[in-house]
Every structure is written in structure tokens, then in C-alpha cells.
Write a structure and sequence with these properties.
Layout lengths: L11 E6 L4 E6 L3 H7 L2 H12 L13 E4 L15 E6 L7 E6 L3 H7 L4 E5 L6 E5 L4 E5 L8 H12 L5 E5 L1 H4 L7 E3 L3 E3 L3 H7 L2 E6 L10 H14 L42 E4 L11 E4 L9 E4 L4 H7 L6 H13 L3 H16 L5 H4 L9 H13 L2 H9 L1 H8 L24 H9 L35 H17 L16 H11 L6 H21 L6 H4 L25 H9 L11 H6 L23
Parallel strand pairs: 1-6, 7-12
Antiparallel strand pairs: 1-2, 3-4, 3-6, 4-5, 7-8, 9-10, 9-12, 10-11, 13-14, 14-15
Helix pairs in contact: 2-18, 7-17, 8-9, 8-10, 9-12, 10-13, 10-14, 12-13, 13-14, 15-16, 16-18, 16-20
Amino acid sequence: MAQRMPSGYMGQFLRVDLTRGTIAAEPLPNATILRRYLGGEALAAWYVMREMPRHVQALDPEATIAMFTGPITGTGFTPGGAKICAAFLSPMTGNSLGYSNTAGYWGVELRQAGYDGLIITGASPRPVYLFITENEATLRDATRFWGKGTREAEPMLRQEVGLPDARVAVIGPAGENRVRSGMLLNDYGHSCAHGVGALFGSKNLKAIVIRGTKRPPVHDRAALIAAGDRWRKVVEKRTPAMKRGVGYGGSWGAVNKSNWRSSVIEPEDTRGFASNRITLRPCFQCNVLAPWAVEVGEGPHKGKLLQFNGGTEVLDAFFNLGIKGNDVLYLWDRINDFGIECAEFSCAAGVAFEAWEKGLLTREQTGGLELTWGNVATVERLLEMTALREGWIGELLAQGPVELAAAIGGDAPKWTVHVKGGVPAMHDWRPLIGGMLRELVASGAMKPQGGGLANPPPDLAYREKWGPLDPRAADGWAHSHLITEQYRHFMGLIGGCWHAQNPEKADGLKSIVDSLVAATGWDDYTMDESLEAGHRAILLRSLFDAQRGWKAEDDWTNVGPRFLEPVPDGKYKGFTIARFLPGLIQEYYRISGRDAVSGRPYLDTLKRLGMEEFAEHSHERGTNLGAAHGA
């Protein structure tokens, strides 16, 4: 007997083959699979694991991009219900799973057009964009949009389809030129990062334009409204004052500077921010108001109107190159227009600036540019050269910090910050044990989840009996990180945004689980089951990466040396997580049901979580390391 589709889902996704030029609607998997993986990055990774051959490279036509929403995406009755998440083989690392996500309105619009997700394969012989409505899905010529930045292309595409309310996700020149950190941008500033833009470019897919008016079905509307109201009461709402500081790093008192050689926050960093006119903006029906618009009130960019998402990594990215004040906001807009991920660019450009400082680069190599710290014109030109892969320096910046440092030679490889060839999120995590653990065990091609809290969330007090943790001792941080990683992933699986998750308040997690129950009708769904769902997303990445040669020791050996150096100055001077490695990472793998050497999940872990279909890739049966270690 066929299983009934649970509420909360549109029930179908679009499969797009760009080589053949075909588009077809397909049903979602059965209710058992949906309850197991929910949606978002886990459902996307489940499809990629099952469908993408291991020999395929990230930018090959056969490479798969899977993008899925979750059961609360677009209901409108909760905060944060705007996410769509992607899974793909990362072009940044070449051998690990890329996880990417974006909020705003674009993912919501896909649901309103009648679809829960997209699976894209193949490559078009010419530039195209995908146009989706409730009545049709077609591939259209995008030749006249090719070469345009994201800022110009987005309104042009709306005009092209004749629908001013259509939602657009589009790549810039970086994606078109397969710069490995190319991004997909939507809603004037929201970004789907970590290389998915390069995959779009490799497939000659410029954009996806969507318009729809449907609403996702929900099981119990009144209960969902009630749970959503509870959820709204515990979120941390953004304020204009928050947009006038140094960003997330200000919460612990460190930012990236001079290619990670300083971390001290100074008043000059936010020069002119106080004079800016800030307008907070919502994602779909969300009261957090994380995105924002700014009218620059001071300096050479005075009067410019700029729009950004809720993250603050870009601030650190340009602080790292010596940029200050409103020049940072101007360059933030430029990097979005080119469609380049900020962390990859900054970690690579930082090496180049340091090499120039130390006499290892010539004007011939830099295209005549002087790579002096804080030079706005130079950084802007380097962004353009990177997006176009122009000249010696542009081509190597497009390839990332490891490749650039190797080409420079000398001591340059010692100055790199990278994780398995990719990059960490662009904040100075080095003072934080949980934050560093989060970055090191991530794939190098994702927005890492977790990081841990010094005390367990109030909603987990029934099971978590520990804390407070010592911020300068390793004890307990592996477990704290794992719990945080689980509930953060769960948020993405249901289509929720992490900016709307506040685990440190009572009802900060329970209201979210209750929202899922009301949306789907799974009345017996528990908090513990939500953590298990997040755990499956973690394991899917390990399984995928291990198939392609990754092993646990890469988490502490394939890391840029500077990322593990002691904090160079400021109140955390001298601290480094390196003193706790590899033991801390090995503990994390053990307590998560994975082998501390191979990194693969044990067979009983997979069975406990209903993931037996991947048993052949377990530690015991895997062909990579299992036999060599007596499994």
C-alpha cells in the first residue's frame, strides 16, 4: 500500500537535465524517508549520495546539484521559514560534500510554485536560465544576461519574464568563469555560497526565476500558529545598532586582520558606521529582521544604497585586508555583484598581500597593482581579476589560498588559512574551542554547524546534565559541539534559518519541534528525534567524503598552518586549540558513532538511525580504511 504524503510538503520536485534540455516533475520519496531526512541539506545529500557516480568531478556535466526546502519553508506561520539548502560535490575541495543554503524569498517562491526542490544535472550547450511557475517550467536563452553582475541581472530577468514579483537566483561573472568559490545570489544580497555558483557556471545555467502563489499544506493550522507565536517570542531580534559594529566577532572580541596576524578590534574599524541610515528587512514572514539595507552616510561612498543578508563574515573578510569603515560595506556590495565567496577570496588575497609586504611578489605578477594593506582600489580590482580569472594573480586567486601560496613559494604556504583545501567561515575562531572544533571537522565547503555552548540549552535539561564548560579546557566541548551540530542541522532540514534559532532561551528549541509537528501531523515526533535527524545530516557528509578519500586525520593535518597558530595579540594572546589535537577531534568522532581513524560511521550507528542502505560505506565494510584497521 502506498504511503500517504505527510502534510507540510508540496509532494514533488523538479528534475532538470540541462544536457538533454528536459524538465520533469517527480514525486518526493515515501513518508518513511521524509520523516528520516525531513528536507534541506539531508534530503539533498541523500539524493546526491544515491545518484552521483564517484568518478564524477565537481564541474563535470554529470555532477549533481540537489536543492531542497523543508516542511516549514513558506508556511508563513513561523519565523525563519525561508531556507532552501543545496548539496553537491564541492569544487573548493574536490572531494567533499558542499552544503549551501540561502534565505530571503526565493526558496519560498519555489514552494509557492508547487515544488519542494530541484535536482539539476547535465550542461547546456549555451547560456540558459530556468523559469518556473505553477503552470510551466522552461529553459530560456540567457545569452544577453551572461557577463552581467548579479545586481544588474536580477531586475533584468524580472523584466524579461514580465513578472515584477518573480524571485531570482543568479550567478555573477565568478560563477560563469567557474571560479571555485562562485556564489548564487538571490533577493539582492542573500547568497548560496561554497561553490554552488561555479557549478551553475559549469552547466551554463545563469539563473533560476520563479513565480508562484500556492501555499504549502499544513496539518494543524491553529497549532502551527500557536507554536510559531511561541517561537517568535524567543528569537533574538536584530537592531540597527547591531549593524554599526564589527559583526559576530565582536561578541567574543576578536576579528581577522592582516592575514590573521592580528585580532584586536579598534574604533577605526567601524569608521562612519554611526552616520549610516540602517533599514532592517525581513525574510519571508520573519521577525528577526536579519537582512538589512544601508544608505551610506559618510566618506567617498556617501549616498550609496546597499543591501545585505544577515551574516557578517564579509566584514571580517575585508578587515583581514586592512579595509576600514564604509569602504568595507562598499566592497561587500562589489563582491556580491561579482558573486565571489568572501572567505575564500580573503584567505587567498591575504596571502598575496603578505607576500607583497615581504617582497615575494612583483608588479608583473600582480598586474601592476601594489598590494598594500587597506588599498580599496586594489582590492576592488582584485575582485574583478578573480571573477574574470585575469592575469597571473587573478587566476590563482580564483583557485584558492593553497594554490596561490604554492605558486608564490617560499614560506607562503605557512601563512595559509584553510580547512581541507577549503576555507572556514570568515571569523577569527581561534580563541574559541567549540568554534574551532566546528570549523575543523566541517567539510571545508559548507557553513559549519555546531560550535557548542558552555551550558546545555534549557530545552535539553531533561537529558543534558553538564556545564558550565571551561573555555580554556577541552573537557566537554566535543559533546557540546555535537549536540549543537545536531539541532542546528535539524533547523536546516525543516527549512528554518539559524538566525531564528535561539537555543539559550527556554522554548527556543521546543517551539521549533512543535512547529514541525503541527505542519506535518507527526504527533509523536520528539526532541530526541529532531537531534537524530540532525545527526543523519552529519553522517551523510562523512559517508560522502569517505567515498572520495577523506579520513578523520585530515581534520587536523590538512589545515592551513596559520589557522592553528596561537592567537597573535589581544586578550586571547597565546591561546591555540592545537594543544588539544588530535584528541579532541578523535573524541568527537567516537561519541558520534564514527571511527576516530577512518571517520566513517559504524554499522550499528547506521542501523540505529535507519540508514542501513549505506552500510557498504560503514567503517566495517568501507574500502578506504576499514580492513586496514581490523574492522
